[in-house]
Amino acid sequence: VTRLTRLPSSLVDLSEPLQVVRYEQGGHYHAHHDSGPVYPETACTHTRLAANTTSPFQT
């Protein structure tokens, strides 16, 4: 991860493990512990489903 991102190893060592996921068509990531009322800037996205028409990727 350090070589790929060029982030300092001290930062990478203190971070959560990297996860790479490929979703099937229609799949999405559900909200998790740090999205909700405690962190209002990170919306619980699975409760506000809407098409992202500005995304360059197929949604």
UniProtKB/TrEMBL annotation:
Q: Looking at the record's lineage, which domain of life comes first?
A: Eukaryota
Record's protein name: Uncharacterized protein
* Originating organism: Cirrhinus mrigala
